[in-house]
Write a structure and sequence with these properties.
Largest sheet: 10 strands, mixed
Shape: globular
Number of strands: 14
Structural class: alpha/beta
Distance between the termini: 40 Å
Radius of gyration: 19 Å
Order of helices and strands: EEEEEHEHEHEHEHEHEHEEEHHH
Helix content: 25-40%
Number of helices: 10
Length: 346
């Protein structure tokens, strides 16, 4: 059951004994289990978040791009995106994270944002490399987006310019920073002496590096760094902006930060979120695209992929059955990443 009152969306799932409250303006999200019941392990009614690649086109062609996006990458057709939204509207989907490639350079990008928010009452956000932020894109972002994340690439001049453009229209702006063995030094420097462009952002979000791009540098994994203690000490200090992490860092958070388990969010791939590629293939996680089988959404519905798709079933089983050598923190992080144990920080 979905109830909408102004900016608040209330979803009640009596058969699983929990309720979801979502503020479509601020992004505040709360999943509340009924008294006497455990928090739900997964949403049996469908995903709450869709991570959708609307294009594989990108003019940066970064070596570490896990999707290997390039100038020949194709765009998802607008009618295919609408097919997804038509189904998502009848599922628990509250938010859509648009990615790529560089999503804001999709030829129908502004229409996609408008359609998602106005026609289907789902909040879109997107991650950009900072390029292609035209006046039209910026205005659509301000009108329809929950937030925009700008990926941090050295030498960061394009990052700074992108932030300025977005902030000028009061778009809630985050910075995505990929942490690896080497980049952690820059992260620590930013935390100790923040660049001026961070003063206006909503949050600095750290992402755990996965060796899945055009080059796979396993020696550069974050866990190989000797600076982890320094980094996690710094993130716990007061800053002029919020600090966030992707769920791929949850194993590090439970081992290096002493805060209430209430504030941790472990991997929700296949449990509360789904990834859809620009060619209409569904996976539990975007990082599974080149290593696992998919469900073709041309021949299956979102709900069919979610409930009966082989990889969705397997990732839930792996997460649920993860033993972690009887680690007492497993109940908090659920074993970290269920697919690539080599990125876990424990």
């Amino acid at each position: 059951m979905r109830m909408v009152k102004h900016k608040f969306i209330l979803q009640r799932f009596p058969e699983q004994h929990y309720t979801v409250l979502f503020n479509s303006e601020t992004g505040f999200f709360l999943r509340i289990e009924d008294v006497g019941f455990e928090p739900p392990f997964w949403s049996e009614n469908g995903p709450e978040l869709l991570d959708i690649s609307i294009t594989r086109w990108c003019d940066r062609e970064c070596l570490r791009c896990y999707r290997k996006a390039n100038l020949f990458g194709k765009h998802m057709k607008l009618e295919k995106y609408r097919q997804i939204m038509e189904q998502a509207h009848n599922l628990p989907v509250l938010q859509v994270a648009l990615g790529g490639g560089n999503p804001n350079q999709h030829p129908d990008f502004c229409e996609i944002l408008k359609m998602t928010r106005e026609e289907y009452n789902i909040v879109p956000s997107y991650t950009t490399n900072g390029r292609g932020l035209t006046k039209k894109v910026l205005e659509a972002s301000a009108a329809y987006c929950g937030a925009v994340a700008v990926s941090a690439y050295s030498p960061y001049n394009e990052l700074e310019l992108a932030i300025e453009k977005l902030i000028s229209l009061d778009v809630k702006t985050n910075v995505h920073f990929v942490l690896d063995k080497d980049s952690i030094a820059t992260a620590i420097q930013w935390l100790k002496n923040p660049p001026t462009f961070l003063s206006s952002v909503n949050a600095l979000i750290f992402l755990n590096y996965k060796p899945l791009g055009r080059i796979e540098e396993k020696d550069d994994l974050l866990k190989e760094s000797s600076s982890l203690n320094v980094f996690f000490d710094e993130v716990q200090k007061s800053h002029g902006y919020k600090i966030g992490f992707d769920s791929c860092l949850v194993s590090g958070l439970v081992n290096y930060i002493n805060i209430s388990p209430t504030f941790f969010d472990c991997c929700d791939a296949g449990r509360f979120s789904m990834f859809i590629s620009e060619d209409m293939q569904a996976y539990p996680c975007s990082f599974m695209e080149n290593t696992h089988s998919s469900i073709d959404l041309e021949n299956n519905t979102l709900l069919e992929a979610w409930t009966t798709g082989n990889e969705f079933i397997k990732i839930r089983q792996r997460t649920l059955n993860e033993k972690c050598e009887k680690c007492p923190k497993k109940i908090i992080c659920l074993g970290g990443c269920p697919n690539w144990k080599l990125i876990n920080l424990c």
